[in-house]
From TrEMBL:
The lineage of its organism: Bacteria, Pseudomonadati, Bacteroidota, Chitinophagia, Chitinophagales. InterPro entries: RuvA_2-like (IPR010994). It comes from Niastella vici. This is Helix-hairpin-helix DNA-binding motif class 1 domain-containing protein. It comes from the Bacteria.
Length: 691
């Protein structure tokens, strides 16, 4: 009965399936947008590892659960719900092309999924425990990185470092079909000591994880390091999550509550035990964590023997004596849990998390920090929900903290037409609401002190064309850092994408943002008043696939920055990339040439940079410089051997990047002018895989 349907949908796919694009494991545009909001980019590469694994071991859509589809982070909840209902109604898929018949699924979405999915009628039998430990894939990663900079300013900055300028990452991981994972990670940042001083045991940071799935009633079991993701992130969200970007429908936090953690970031995870149990429509998650945090401490003048926390440090750097003194000086005990009742269309859940710190936190004297967490324990509680009705999906979370300060987020995803999708988010978060390890869909870095409305629409007016638009209006009821009064702002983005054929796709984007910032030129220098500051970005990007081997990418971006009381600033960025990946050859490489010129740091521009596998950077580009990047990969066992099911494989990668700044006026007469304003970044990585 289904074969005519499959044949009907196969014809439009003749050009689509042939378009074997170089797989991008993370959304570059979302990462660039996040970096531009000064939120920082975490070192959590778990999603990248997961998608890379799925390229070799695709997810069988006929067996995939809702949580497994959410873990891809490539689909909206509306798309996932519609797919599960489609499969429940019509049975297993016969071909991947049949996905076009699923409501709210478009060609662009399916293209993103193709490298990571398969369709099979084979049932995955529950593997015995012995098979899980013997038949998995083992991966060993070794990475060496170093920045070479001959400038005197750089030498002055690093002369107090206790260790060498070399950064080293070690990671061993075992994975059996995502049913069993375990591994260990060791990380040394540049400037940290290694095998000496306070680090006689080697690496500055160690991480161990053991994670099992689908053990009868036990859906997930985490021992060691893991992340916890609850609801919409108002009380807890430690995995990677994005905010506003050109992907205007990516507004909902979604993913399994427990996930293994084996990245190099030293802050945003738990260390202990977590378990998810499921019986019928009821799911229960419990976890407990005991770990040490880095913190700035101060001594109470009234009680000289006691100390309190002025701030928690999230960078993970331990390069100097001062940073060593702040290392692991606070113990944090975290407990929490969630109960969820869910069916194919809806769910409702209750979530809670509680913290006990070995030393109390005390707000700083700054007015904007008046409502910060105070004391040695804290709690957050929330209720979340979702419901899908036909082509509409509503969801939300309502949370309170220990002092009953409230926060809420409600959202809507709707498919108005086969060519039109819409998203709406409302958030109302008290200026007094506080939380730890949280990350919600807000303008602020953390869910605090914000009210706002977001609306986005994605339109496909004709074949090969796509228009994405969002508008966000927000207000901050209380003071913020560098904003000495209640303020607000708005942001708009319009992006037009065009893919005339399977070889070319391009987009042009305009983004406008206005929000308050203190006026440095205010008459009252002791208390500057906030003024609206506007940032405009215009970007045009094009990808051109010459053939199956070569792909070219180019971008031009301009930024305008300023306020009514400040001199206007501009910035400009241009780069061109070449990616070469010959089929059935053991090598591949890519290179970039980039030029940047901005008036100052205020008019900076961000651009995603590929380096070695599982590693990337998004530096703030400002001033005037020329930069080049060269990445080379060589597989010591060719792909042809891999296709013959050889058991061993080794990937060697080298990345070299250099920024060349023109000699500044003050040093133009010196012989080392160019060297003074030049820096080089070198990364060497070896990945050994055994199956």
């Amino acid at each position: 009965m289904k074969w005519p349907l499959v044949i009907l949908f196969t014809l439009p796919w003749i050009g689509i399936t042939a378009q074997e694009r170089l797989a991008t494991p993370v959304n570059e545009q979302q990462l660039e947008s996040q970096a531009g909001r000064e939120e920082g980019i975490t070192e959590d590469d778990s999603q990248w590892q997961q998608l890379e694994y799925l390229q070799k071991h695709p997810l069988n859509l006929n067996e995939a659960t809702g949580d497994e589809l959410k873990a891809l982070r490539l689909l909206t909840d509306l798309q996932i719900t519609n797919f599960l209902l489609y499969r429940q109604l019509l049975g297993s898929l016969l071909h991947v092309n049949e996905l076009q018949a699923v409501p709210a699924w478009d060609v662009a979405t399916i293209q993103k999924l193709l490298p990571f999915i398969s369709v099979s009628d084979q049932k995955n039998m529950a593997a015995r425990l012995g098979e899980r430990f013997k038949q998995g894939e083992q991966t060993l990663l070794l990475r060496y990185a170093r920045t070479v900079n001959t400038s005197s300013d750089y030498k002055k900055t690093t002369e107090d470092y206790l260790g060498s300028p070399t950064a080293v990452l070690f990671r061993y991981k075992y994975n059996y079909k995502n049913l069993l994972q375990y591994g260990i990670t060791g990380d040394k940042d540049a400037g940290e000591p290694f095998l000496k001083g306070a680090q006689k045991n080697g690496f500055d940071f160690y991480s161990f994880h053991f994670f099992a799935r689908k053990l009868g009633v036990i859906q997930s079991l985490a021992i060691g390091d893991f992340t916890v993701n609850f609801a919409q992130g108002l009380i807890q969200w430690q995995g990677m999550a994005f905010k506003k970007s050109a992907d205007v429908l990516a507004i909902k936090r979604q993913g399994p509550m427990l996930q293994p953690y084996n990245s190099a970031g030293e802050y945003n995870f738990h260390r202990g035990v977590g378990v998810t149990l499921q019986k019928g429509i009821v799911q229960c998650t419990l976890f407990g964590s005991m770990r040490k945090l880095n913190a700035n401490l101060a001594v109470d003048s009234l009680f000289p023997g006691s100390a309190y926390i002025t701030s928690i440090i999230t960078t993970g750097y331990h390069r100097t004596l001062a940073e060593m003194n702040d290392r692991y000086n606070v113990q944090c005990l975290t407990t929490g849990g969630a109960v969820k009742i869910a069916n194919s269309r809806s769910h409702i859940g209750i979530n809670a998390v509680h913290y006990n710190l070995s030393k109390p936190m005390r707000p700083a004297a700054a007015p904007y920090d008046q409502f910060a967490i105070n004391g040695s324990n804290w709690s957050n509680y929330s209720v979340d929900y979702s419901y899908t009705f036909r082509n509409m999906h509503v969801y939300g979370e309502v949370a309170v903290d220990k002092l009953m300060n409230r926060a809420m987020i409600h959202g809507l995803l709707a498919s108005l037409d086969p060519k039109v999708d819409m998203a709406i988010v409302y958030r109302n978060i008290s200026s007094r609401y506080q939380s730890l390890f949280s990350n919600a869909f807000t303008e602020n870095s953390f869910p605090v002190n914000e009210n706002g409305w977001y609306a986005g629409i994605s339109i496909r007016p004709a074949a090969r064309w796509k228009l994405d638009v969002y508008a966000d209006v927000f207000r901050f009821p209380w003071l913020k850092y560098q904003v000495n009064a209640p303020s607000g702002g708005h942001e708009y983005l319009v992006q037009l994408s065009y893919a005339p054929n399977k070889y070319i796709d391009m987009y042009t984007r305009f983004r406008h943002e206005t929000k308050g910032s203190n006026d440095a030129d205010s008459v009252s220098s002791s208390l500057p008043s906030p003024v609206p500051v506007t940032r405009l970005n215009w970007r045009t990007h094009i990808n051109y696939r010459v053939n199956r081997t070569i792909e070219l990418r180019s971008r031009v971006e301009t930024v305008w920055y300023g306020s009514s009381s400040q001199q206007k600033e501009t910035g400009f960025l241009f780069y061109t990339d070449v990616h070469v990946k010959p089929a059935f050859k053991p090598f591949s490489f890519n290179a970039r040439l980039q030029y940047v010129e901005t008036d100052s740091y205020n008019s900076r521009i961000y651009a995603f940079e590929n380096t070695v596998l599982y590693n990337y950077s998004i530096p703030a580009s400002f001033n005037k410089f020329l930069r080049y990047i060269i990445n080379v990969n060589y597989r010591l066992m060719p792909r042809a051997a891999m296709q013959q099911r050889k058991k061993y494989n080794c990937l060697l990668s080298l990345s070299c990047a250099q920024s060349v700044y023109p000699a500044e006026t003050a040093v133009e007469a010196t012989n080392t002018a160019v060297e003074t304003y030049s820096r080089s970044d070198i990364r060497l990585q070896l990945i050994f895989t055994a199956r």
